[in-house]
Amino acid sequence: MPLYPMSRLSLPGRRAALVLAAAAALPLAAQAAGPTLLNVSYDVSREFYKDINPAFAAQWKKTTGEDVTLNQSHGGSSRQARSVIDGLQADVITMNQAIDIDALAERGGLVPANWATRLPFGSAPTTSVQVILVRKGNPKKISDWNDLGKPGVSVIIPNPKVTGNGRATYLAAWGASIKGGVSPEAAKALVGRIFANVPVLDGGGRAATTTFAQRNLGDALVTFESEAPLIVKEFGDNFEVIYPNRTLLAENPVSVVDKVVDKRGTRKVAEAYLQFLYSEAGQEIAAKHHMRPRDAKVAAKYAKVFPKVSTFTVDEVFGSWAKAQKDHFNDGAIYDQIISSGKR
User: Fold this and answer.
1) Which of 121, 134, 181, 252 minimizes the number of CB atoms within 10 Å of its CB?
2) Calculated CA dihedral for residues 79, 331, 189, 158, nearest 10 degrees
3) Rounded to the nearest 5 degrees, what angle is found at the Cα of 158, between the Cα atoms of 108 and 95?
4) Which residues pair with 72 in a beta bridge?
């Protein structure tokens, strides 16, 4: 408040007071005028984006002079995609499988069908691999996918119908079998045995982690490589990471949500946000969060952090994410047949 009532000031004094009041309000006005972005992402990417967001905000401020507010939404990947289709105003979507971004194109035209061609590496700035987390000492002697299907082994895997983590696990076990030279029938039988050993199908990767690490349910947890160090950090050094002989390369695709950014006028900052993920700074943050970087320089720097492992992609074994979804996860497809047959 001014020291004196406005009515007691002279005309020049009133003008000066108004100028001072306007000047004092400028920082707040500038901050309020800055863009706001919502990034809708999958369940286990929380900590990664907690570090990405302030780093990008600082760069955006330095480059443009604007403050940017970055909000996050996390959950099972398919549920997240469904929320965007149903109206959640996401400026960007950052997933762990292409099929969830494809859904935005197919069920609402929120992104173009060729969204994956707009950024390098199929619009996937980072990757991870599916690993098996076991309890200290590995009492069940688990070393590969086949071991998860043995009698007496309890496996924690999130629901493949609604989570990218669950789908990646299913496809990793199936694909590793095919790459090992077995028939599709034998691969299906293995996956059936594995899911028969799943006591509870959680709705997200983080919920599955809680079931395994906090509730102490299960002998093994299948999750992304990037999640394993977070589990040890949060719950203690009570676990070991097992790298299967062959495993799925999980690519993490990203896209602006075109209909939203064009409506909200946030396309420029949204595109810059995704491009930051490819920058050396963004790739460094990814590597520190145990996500495999695409940048060759950063990858070389962190080579000792990421064990070499034989990997395959969804396209390589299953044709495409769209075909894998249709053949395995749509209603009535192979996964539903496995569940309804009583093998779980």
Assistant:
1) 181
2) 10
3) 40
4) 39
CATH 3.90.550.10 is right for the domain spanning 34-124+253-278: no
Other CB atoms within 10 Å distance of the CB of residue 331: 7
Asked whether this chain's domains 34-124+253-278 and 127-250+307-340 adopt the same fold, the reply is: yes
pTM of the model: 0.82
Contact 73, 80 (CB under 8 A): yes
Grouping H, G, I as helix, E, B as strand and the rest as coil, residue 125 is coil
Strand partners, 69: 36
Domain parsing of the chain, residue ranges: 34-124+253-278, 127-250+307-340
**Quick check: 239 and 90 in contact, CB under 8 A?**
no
Query: In the structure encoding, which two tokens stand for residue 147, read together?
Result: 């071991």
Quickly list DSSP for 135-185.
Answer: ETT-TT---SHHHHTSTT--EE---TTT-HHHHHHHHHHHHHHHHTT--HH
Instruction: Give the contacts of 4 (CB within 8 A, at least 6 positions apart).
Output: none
**Nearest Cα residue to 314 out of 147, 100, 76:** 100
Residue 309 CB-half CA count within 13 A: 25
Confidence of residue 225 (pLDDT cuts 50, 70, 90): very high
Do β-strands 239-242 and 126-135 pair in parallel, antiparallel, or remain unpaired? antiparallel
Distance of alpha carbon 194 from alpha carbon 160, whole angstroms: 13
pLDDT of 331 higher than 90? yes
